[in-house]
Design brief:
Blueprint (H helix, E strand, L loop, with lengths): L15 E8 L9 E2 L16 E9 L2 E8 L8 E8 L2 H13 L5 E6 L13 E9 L2 H13 L6 E4 L11 E8 L7 E6 L10 H7 L4 E4 L19 E3 L2 E4 L5 E7 L9 E14 L4 E3 L2 E2 L5 E5 L11 E8 L4 E4 L10 E8 L5 E8 L8 E5 L2 H9 L6 E9 L2 E3 L5 E5 L3 E4 L2 E2 L14 H9 L4 E7 L4 E6 L12 H10 L2 E6 L8 E3 L2 E2 L14 E6 L1
Parallel strand pairs: 1-2, 17-20
Antiparallel strand pairs: 1-3, 3-4, 4-9, 5-7, 5-8, 6-7, 9-30, 10-34, 11-32, 11-34, 12-13, 12-26, 14-15, 14-26, 15-16, 15-24, 18-19, 20-23, 21-22, 21-23, 24-25, 27-28, 27-31, 29-30, 29-31, 32-33
């Protein structure tokens, strides 16, 4: 399949061309129409940058728009970040060490911007940076020299991705879904129809003959952090809660019920409460669903997780005593290891008891597995013939949320817009590490590829990708820029989804985004598809 970014537009044969707009620019060909829309240009870079928009209708009620904005800045260059430190004193000390080692062109950059909900005052920290190169290969050579002297944590960076002023360029893809006119469905999809494992969005879209698609929530990449492919946050589909919430983190909630008076889509701060009750009256908190016990990716769990029960992004918390429920959507077998597990049928009756984890998951019913103290609970309260009832509650913005066959929930974060205003709760949702301010700088202040979801006042859905980590093609966006982009496109509520190398969008048979991973399109855990 030809990658969309290698050609200017989608094939007209597969998708009807609606309009081509050149904003603040001269049309490239006579068939393109010039439209001045200064009030609608994207808030990226200076307002007078050239912007080209190409719009197409892949299906009734669905509009796809590709926006190309700005140009490469002659002032941007490659450099090497030696470190990010919290104080100027630390930065000056490192600068002195570099000079003693013969690196004379190092400098200190003050990073003034903190997260919007950060209560701390003053600069976020200080970057020690060295070199100014037009070619990344030259920055790589400097990094090798620094490494040879014992410096670690080195990064090649392109200054156009810093979050400061630049002319871009940016490549933005927008899917707008009119839920009143679109006769299909907007649905979340698991890779390979199971929790375990990953799949590219292109494969997911092809397998489901999707009209369009976009990558969705955060997930476990490697086995050191849990079950590879496990959703690192809430996931629900067809009335089934598949993965527990990162408590207190935002999620996108969709409904396909035409008779529901509530909004068909909303963004809410969600938490889950899951309890197992034995027929002998004993009650035990269920720590998680369909994942490896003991490893809680992005934290935000329950039951004394270490080091925190608060959300903490790209971090894996641990708990030696966990109670996990597995259903058939996980895969064929539970995660193997020490502990205990019981098989319960559709009525909740205990029909099998195992003294090790790793059993076959029944197609109807579930397996309850325990480690540490949770294994002891199973031994005491889940004997053959007893019943175990597992009940889940989902709380969204302080209210109980119903979960039925028409409801879907997709994890994300942080929230970007609320009621039409920029509202980025980065600290609350765990994207700021107190012990490492550089984490927020790299994740939230620097420009990265982004995948965004929003809801317009008229109920239309917006799914947006911003390509990044591709100097000369697209520099990406930071959290604040992402929020402003969504607002400019008409969203009143918006959320950040998984981005970086995961950022992908398909339209028809084409991938319209440019992968930022050197290996190409990244396999992911879940996507959001538009299907008939």
């Amino acid at each position: 399949m030809m990658e969309m970014w290698k050609k200017p537009f989608l094939p007209i044969a597969s998708i009807s061309l609606t309009a081509v707009m050149i904003v603040n620019a001269i049309p490239e060909t006579p068939v393109q129409s010039q439209v001045h829309m200064k009030n609608h240009v994207l808030p990226l870079g200076m307002p007078n940058l050239q912007e080209k928009r190409t719009s197409m209708n892949p299906a009734p009620g669905v509009m796809y728009t590709k926006i190309i904005r700005g140009e490469t800045s002659s002032k941007d260059f490659y450099t090497v970040d030696v470190t990010f430190v919290e104080t100027q004193k630390q930065a000056k000390k490192l600068l002195g060490n570099l000079k003693r080692d013969g690196f004379r062109n190092a400098r200190i950059i003050r990073e003034p911007d903190r997260a919007m909900d950060d209560l701390e005052k003053g600069p976020l920290g200080y970057i020690v940076r060295i070199g100014q190169y037009q070619l990344e290969a030259d920055a790589t050579e400097m990094r090798k020299q620094l490494s040879a002297k014992g410096y670690t944590g080195l990064r090649n960076v392109y200054t156009g991705e810093d979050g400061e002023k630049t002319t871009g360029p940016w490549v933005v893809n927008v899917l707008e879904v009119d839920q009143e006119r679109f006769q299909g469905h907007v649905v979340p999809e698991l890779a390979n129809d199971a929790v375990i494992g990953k799949e590219t969005l292109t494969q997911m879209a092809d397998r489901n003959v999707a009209i369009a698609g976009v990558n969705a929530g955060y997930f476990v990449v490697g086995e050191n952090d849990g079950t590879s492919g496990d959703l690192a946050g809430i996931f629900a589909s067809n009335g089934q809660l598949v993965s527990e919430a990162i408590n207190g983190r935002s999620a996108l909630i969709l409904s396909s019920d035409d008779d529901d008076d509530d909004d068909k889509a909303k963004i809410a701060s969600v938490s889950t409460s899951i309890q197992a009750t034995s027929s002998d009256g004993a009650v035990r908190e269920v720590d998680g669903l369909n994942r490896k016990p003991g490893l809680i990716r992005n934290c935000g769990g329950v039951g004394g997780d270490m080091t925190t029960e608060r959300p903490k992004h790209d971090f894996t918390c641990k708990d030696e005593s966990e109670f996990i429920q597995y259903t058939s959507i996980f895969g064929e077998k539970t995660e193997s290891g020490d502990g205990a597990e019981v098989v319960v049928n559709h009525a909740g009756e205990v029909v099998e008891i195992h003294n090790q984890r790793g059993g076959d998951i029944p197609s109807s019913g579930s397996i309850l597995t325990g480690t540490g103290e949770a294994a002891e609970w199973l031994h005491d309260h889940a004997q053959q013939g007893m019943k175990i009832q597992v009940k889940s509650e989902i709380i969204g913005d302080g209210k109980l949320l119903k979960l039925d066959q028409t409801t879907s929930m997709i994890n994300g974060g942080p929230r970007l817009l609320e009621n039409g205003e920029v509202s980025i709760n980065t600290v609350e949702e765990g994207f700021h590490w107190e012990e490492d301010p550089g984490f927020y700088y790299r994740f939230g202040e620097r420009r990265n590829p982004r995948t965004l979801a929003g809801i317009k006042e008229n109920g239309n859905l917006l799914f947006v990708t911003i390509d990044g980590r591709a100097p000369g093609w697209s520099v990406g966006a930071n959290f604040e820029e992402s929020a402003k982009v969504m607002k400019s496109l008409g969203a009143v509520d918006a959320i950040n989804l998984d981005g970086g190398g995961s950022t992908t969008m398909t339209v028809g048979d084409d991938r319209v985004t440019r992968p930022s991973d050197a290996a190409g399109e990244r396999p992911i855990a879940d996507g959001i598809l538009l299907v008939e």
